[in-house]
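During the first year of the project, the team set up a workflow for recording each protein of interest as an amino acid sequence followed immediately by a discrete structure-token representation. This format lets reviewers and collaborators read both layers of information side by side without switching files. As required by the reporting guidelines, we include two representative entries from the current panel. The first entry is reproduced here exactly as it appears in our internal archive.
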Amino acid sequence: MAKYRELAEKFIGDIRAGRLAAGDRLLSLRQFARQQGVSLSTAVSCYAELESLGWLEARPKAGFFVAPRRAATQGPEWAPFESRLATPVVPYRHPATLSGPLGTSRLSLEEASRAALERSFRRAMRAAGERLDRYPAPQGEAVLREALAGHFGQCGFAMDADELVIGHGCMDAVKTALEVCTRPGDAVAISSPCYNGLLEVLAQLSLRIVEIPSLDDGIDLAQLEHHLRLGTVQAGLFCTTHMNPQGITMSVAQKRRLAQLANRYRVPVIEDDVYLELAHHPHVPLPAAYHDEGGFVIWCGSLSKTLSPSYRLGWCRPGRYFRPYVQRALGVPTLMQLALADFIDSGAYARHLRRTRDRLARHKPLYLDYLVRHLPEGCRISQPDGGLVLWLQVPGLDGDALGRAAERAGLDIRTGALFTASDRYRDCLRINIGFPFEEPVQRELQALCGLIGKMAGQGAGPA
């Protein structure tokens, strides 16, 4: 991390801890440089960074002061509604040319992890031997399944390596699970809002949906049980931890009850747990599958969000659907599996996760602070305790118009309409927070807040 950013983060920490208050006068640039033992240019960069983030204000002929803080926003409102059968439509696909830091939910891979991965691939190549002459086993390499079982066992989620099937990412695992436990025309219960990629898969498989309202601690399980009792839905599909896009994590009680409902009504529930390990604190929650006693929860995960989307490697614990699931598996490139098994067994993955959780915990407040200062009054922003996204609700916003304006401006965002088959969330949007809060991110946020401010009849706020 650049020295001026390190100093800026220390300054922000002092404000949060109450050691500095709004209106406090700060040292001059030369005094600050001498105090910290840095160059004047580093001091200038530090103060400029703090001013751009809204923590510092420069007053002509008076000096520098801690800026007054705007009150934090509330989280989004989850309006109740009655769940009904609907047909998902294939969501609008953003142009491939739009790939900015705010669009797709993803991390930037830091150099330490990149170097460790390179070492794991070199060791895997030396250890592969004759396995490179054979097609990969459909269930996946035992060494990777054992590494994953050991890794999650250390998190309190014990499993046998033979319960797992290795596949091409979490979306591939979810799609295969849907093919195994549903038929075209069946209805699947999903959360509302729901990740647009899942809506696309459901539409491709000619499945209908029932959107279940979100709550602050999960989803409306009473409505879900109502549909299970009536036989309206033939399966469930839920992200349960650090949900995309709403940022909610189901409480332990919710996860336990979800597993109980799946077993009581003997209806498969597919758990998309791709964000499980991306808490913004050291504690990793347990999945709903932990509470499953009859094998009705199909647990899916991957390394795409925690490590890199380029590997396209994930896994599934199909439970009682193991046999038909593994019959559909084709195998994943052997060298990839061996390298990632080495990465996990060497401890590099655990170290990577610790660094990643720490980075996300540091980045999120910077995104939130910027948005609070630059968005119109009355905006609501999610306050997730994990994951990679923020969900924004802007009263009166025309999300479709914002989407068109953003595309014309080359700005990559996801508007609320993409996450539902209904007419809800037209005043919402989702942004990624997986990248460091640096100049490319700040530039895109400034452009986004400017567009929203114009549509709300206001300016973009201080740049």
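The second entry, processed by the same pipeline in the following quarter, appears below.
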Amino acid sequence: MKTINDINFKDKKALVRVDFNVPLNDDFEVTDTTRIHAAKDTIIKILEDEGSVILMSHLGRPKGNQEEFSLKHIVAAATDILGVQVKFVEDTIGDAAQQAAANLQPCEVLLLENLRFHSEETAGDSAFAKALSQLGNVYVNDAFGTAHRAHASTAIIAQYFEEKCFGHLMTREIESLNKVLETPDQPVVAILGGAKVSSKITVIENILDKVDDLIIAGGMAYTFIKAQGGKIGDSLCEDDKMGLALEILEKAKSKNTNIHLPVDAITADAFSEHATMDNAAIDEIPNGWMGLDIGEKSRSEFHTVLMQAKTILWNGPAGVFELEPFSHGTISLGKSVAASTAAGAFSLVGGGDSVAAVKQFGFDNQVSYVSTGGGAMLEMLEGKTLPGIAAILD
């Protein structure tokens, strides 16, 4: 695997695919700079080698050239974080972009306009990829969040470069996932949460061989409970997936993988933080009530499992953590994962909701690694080859 450390960028122009798809407020100010910070050490490495950097990214899902999706809005934040004045050009290909790239001096940074202002980007158009490639002489992919897309700038472009590599962020993501999926210390515990079994089926099937214990939490747990004859009241359930849930339980048995389901729930009579709350055994929830979080017994049992782990994968919350009264199960999981990490386990957290939860509750610095790409991470967990990774490895 060729990484940025394998190349000396002196007097080279590095075309770097980053993921600067960051949130903006109504004044077009960046409200979360995590993704810019994540790319910083890759950019600084190139500048310290006395190379120049041409950054390309998408922002949002524009339909054509839309002012509110212009990357010019993030120039100030990027300049501040990198400590280098970031130049900007109002296109990605064509004369203006070529001129700006040609004029770029060593140790300078240029940001191209939003790639998705051109429909050819998401279409994976070869001519567009080739035009982009002419701006630099080394290609660096550091955008894990888009690695599962076969877009022009993430996959197609690589074929036009002799020199190509992964940036620091991509390298960390791949190594962290491989540490969980390919070379883990055992026992391996996976926590899968979130609303639906259907969105995690392929993940479950792919990791059953790789984990010793699988904790299933969140809304998806109720499909498993009902499939086994439990009463779940008005809790979320995918009735058409109950047969599949039973198959998964049988498959786990045959592979000697322990599946841990919640044993109790915090219930509510409405989906609201002002609802009346109660506790119930997970398989004895009355009609008119729904389980919105895991209960104390489940938290304690999951804690015991996690404290024995040497490798932990966490994808998905334990309950409706966005509503404060139902956030405590997810917080409890976070505390357990943090405690196990402090005791020597390697922990990887990924997926939009679980990343949001660990940041919201302050666990992001208490786990080993927080993945930056929800969709890309899920596809790797499903055993798929990501186009953005395959393009560099070819």
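For the second entry, the following points were noted during internal review. The two ends are 10 Å apart (CA to CA). The chain has a mean pLDDT of 93. Both points are flagged for discussion at the upcoming steering committee meeting.
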